[in-house]
Amino acid sequence: MPTTLEELADLDRTLTRAEINGDIATLDALATEDFTLVGPVGFVLDKQQWLERYRGGGLHTKALAFEDAVTRVYGDAAIRVGRHVQQAEFQGRPVDGEFRATHIAVHQSDRWRLAGVHLSPIGGPPPFAPPREAQRSES
Which pLDDT does position 126 carry in this prediction? Predict the structure, then answer.
């Protein structure tokens, strides 16, 4: 029997394959009815809008990876934070990128389902972090 971490990793692998294949039926089954995506520039999509990106033919994902995920499980809820790396086109324009991603999953009906995804651009260190030189000299 797979562990919770294995089940969550499998959810992410299935999501990735479904996005690359534009598999709306699988994406629909993976996501909760109240699924929400927050995109990398702050737009918000509900489940139907998220699925419509493929249904309408506007989004074509050529490659996608969810990497370096760190997982926290809280009973029937889990948070996975990692890197979302994509090669894709939306309405003929490239939307390639690397983003920090948070996947929110809930355990429903004996399986894990995706309740939300939040993508953010990956930047440098936070403005309140000490400069790297100061960090090295303190070591």
Answer: 73
